[in-house]
Amino acid sequence: MNLKSLLSFLVAWAFYLPVAAQTTWTVGWTNAVGSSYAETVKTVPARIEAATKGRLKIELYDTLVAGAEQPAAVRDGRLDGSFAVSPWLSAEAPLANFGALPGLLTDIVVYQKMLDPLLREEVAKVWSAKYNARQLATGVFEEQCVISKTPIHTVADFNGKKIRVHNTEAAALMNKIGAVPTPIPFGEITTALQRGIVDAVMTSVGTANGFGFPSVAKQLSIWKIGTVVTWSFVVNQSSWDKLPADLKPIVEAEFRRIETEHFARSAEFSKESIDRLVKAGMTLYVAPPEELAKLFSQANVTTVFDNWYALNEKAGTDGRALVKKINEMKARK
Fold this sequence. Notes:
Structural class: alpha/beta
CATH superfamily of the largest domain: Bacterial extracellular solute-binding protein, family 7
Mean pLDDT: 94
Largest sheet: 6 strands, mixed
Number of strands: 11
Radius of gyration: 23 Å
Order of helices and strands: HEHHEHEHEEEHEHEHEEHHEHHH
CATH architecture of the largest domain: 3-Layer(aba) Sandwich
Helix content: 40-55%
Number of helices: 13
Low-confidence stretches: 14-19
CATH topology of the largest domain: D-Maltodextrin-Binding Protein, domain 2
């Protein structure tokens, strides 16, 4: 066989070789501009495509399904997956929102250390039971803050103020100390503060940069309210089951690497975000231990926890047992 014939044979033979099929997942997320969540999510499509050599493609959509509706869309198969934020689950799956309980977890490092002994599995069970979804990664938003036009330096300063909150538990706490929790759509929070619809906004320090808060307010307070605002990447169980068996461990491993890198950058990201806000003209105030003790006093938090326990009972989950386990783990550290 001459060279020309050999080349023709090889080309014809290659035509009949099986080509690895490409799977595409349609994935929802929320474009929380400036946040560590958004910074991490945006890297995922390229990383998964590279890790799977093009066999799994992730397409991100932030408007296809509204954020709060994404978990149900994953359950129903309208989305293959979602980078879902824990406050979205407050009503239907409140157990996943344990990070918003006042004073329970106020340190992201402590939260991360509790993931694999306890919290990852607890949340994964919720995703499986409530949403027919498999959790492949989890993460957190950066440091949470209170943005206001006037200083909020004591618990008494919250009294009478209209506060945009980002979860049910923060709303209950604000109500308890005399503030007026005011729901505002995520995309309208800067305008709401600028126009006086609210007196203060709770958000993450990264989002505060992304949404341009230094142009409308100058007071930046760190109060450790709802510090552990988590997110999870979840995929519909049927979509996961259809993935070729040899790809599953590759995808799981890459998502775990993405998660590890996300947590490793968390403290630095928060510091950089705060530094940018201060450089832009904001005045930083960190609530001292004595004010935090007042805020998280038994008198203030009992009602919040009781409401959360009741929501869990209604949802068929045991919030009391989870809080007990978290407190036991905190006591051992």
